[in-house]
């Protein structure tokens, strides 16, 4: 668990599933990598949510208790030392600082709790802008584009492959600032 | 489906191990369940390069379970009928994509035969399934089994330092072949 003044980053609980389902039911989220528009019925949601998934962490507001989004760690390959992640946020929180804080909490958590050298993410063309800031800061790298990889909503869509190197996160100024701020706030447990 | 050849065409771009034009060649045929022991042998011989199988180690039931998810495959054999290479079509899905995985036993004759038959196997993959984009992944240190057909592929993704192989982290690339780019390559290669 990671705590800041604004968020709690913690493992998902069954009581969170309905909120996660609501986030994923948003039309703009339903067209992301995982379900590609085929979100299962709520009765089949739990096994679908955990398919190929090692861990799910939620980003919760400390002020309201609302689950703002979640991060899925999936397809871990311990022999190679890498895994994949998917990040989901409620539409009203996308692009906000609080989601960025959740993303930083995820980086800190995953690289200090899993023996992973690289994290990868797939992103459809219409979502790849979410990684721009991290690419500019050298936290993430563009590894390539799978052109016309998927059929989404009847149209062929490019899939970008984003990579995050453990050493880049551990040595980053962003990480230092994140943890310094947590320490000053008294939020380092 | 199979394809026997009496002799290889003259190949100006031949590499060591490629079959000489005046010697009998091998053949290829579709994989059958009876070929599973050879596939396991091949995976073990190139371990851990055939990552689909080796990523979890080589516990046989795990390898069999992985093999069960394969759409189709072909075996390359010498003129004497000894299998030396295997190509598999995996992850063929609704989006019209598939993964072409192709490995040869680690010796020059096997790799040469693999290169020789690569164009035919790629053609068979497109003929046998409605694939609009065929992906091929390889480690930087993998043996060349595509030969000149590699020129028809476009590089799309590079994963640096993907996995540890013999003490060194090797990168892994994903390249793609479309029916159109393959047809263009075939036309140019035969010109």
Detailed description of the structure:
The complex is a heterodimer of chains A (189) and B (191). Chain A is 31% helix and 35% strand. The model of chain A has no long low-confidence stretch (mean pLDDT 88). Chain A has one domain (2-184): Aminopeptidase. Chain A is built from seven helices and eight strands; from the N terminus they run ββαααβββαβαββαα. An eight-stranded mixed beta sheet of chain A has the order 1-2-3-4-5-6-8-7, sandwiched between helices. Chain B is α+β, with helices and mostly antiparallel strands and 191 residues long. Chain B is 30% helix and 31% strand. In chain B, strands 1-2-3-4-5-6-8-7 form an eight-stranded mixed beta sheet, with helices on both faces. The longest helix of chain B is centred in the middle third of the chain and has 21 residues, at 108-128. Chain B is globular. The relative contact order of chain B is 0.14. Residues 5-12 of chain B have low confidence and may be disordered. Classes of the chains: A alpha+beta (189), B alpha+beta (191). Chain A binds chain B through residues 77, 79-82, 117-118, 120, 143-151, 161, 163, and chain B through 48, 51, 54-57, 94-97, 132-133, 135, 155-164, 174, 176.
């Amino acid at each position: 668990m990671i705590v800041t003044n604004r968020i709690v980053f913690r493992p998902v609980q069954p009581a969170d599933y309905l909120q996660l389902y609501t986030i994923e039911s948003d039309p703009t989220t339903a067209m992301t990598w995982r379900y590609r528009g085929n979100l299962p019925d709520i009765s089949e949601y739990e096994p679908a949510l955990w398919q190929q998934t090692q861990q799910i962490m939620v980003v919760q507001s400390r002020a309201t208790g609302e689950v703002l989004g979640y991060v899925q760690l999936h397809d871990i390959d311990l022999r190679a030392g890498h895994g994949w992640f998917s990040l989901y946020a409620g539409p009203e929180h996308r692009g906000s600082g609080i989601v960025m804080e959740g993303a930083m909490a995820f980086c800190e958590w995953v690289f200090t709790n899993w023996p992973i050298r690289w994290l990868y993410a797939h992103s459809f063309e219409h979502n790849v802008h979410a990684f721009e800031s991290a690419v500019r800061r050298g936290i993430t790298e563009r590894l390539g584009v799978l052109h016309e990889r998927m059929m989404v909503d009847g149209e062929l869509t490019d899939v970008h492959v984003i990579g995050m190197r453990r050493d880049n996160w551990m040595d980053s100024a962003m990480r230092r600032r994140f943890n310094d701020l947590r320490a000053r706030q008294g939020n380092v447990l | 489906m199979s394809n026997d050849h009496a002799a290889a065409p003259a190949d100006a771009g031949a590499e060591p191990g490629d079959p000489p034009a005046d010697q009998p060649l091998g053949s290829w045929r579709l994989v059958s369940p009876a070929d599973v022991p050879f596939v396991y042998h091949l995976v073990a011989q190139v371990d851990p390069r055939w990552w689909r199988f080796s990523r979890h180690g080589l516990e046989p039931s795990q390898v069999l379970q992985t093999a069960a998810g394969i759409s189709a495959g072909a075996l390359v054999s010498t003129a004497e009928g000894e299998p030396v290479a295997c190509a598999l079509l995996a992850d063929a899905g609704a989006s019209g994509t598939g993964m072409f995985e192709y490995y040869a036993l680690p010796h020059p004759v096997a790799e040469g035969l693999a290169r020789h038959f690569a164009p035919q196997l790629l053609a068979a993959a497109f003929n046998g399934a409605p694939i609009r984009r065929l992906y091929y992944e390889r480690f930087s240190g993998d043996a060349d089994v595509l030969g000149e057909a590699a020129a028809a592929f476009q590089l799309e993704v590079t994963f640096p330092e993907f996995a540890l192989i013999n003490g060194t982290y090797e990168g892994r690339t994903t390249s793609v072949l479309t029916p159109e780019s393959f047809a263009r390559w075939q036309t140019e290669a035969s010109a």
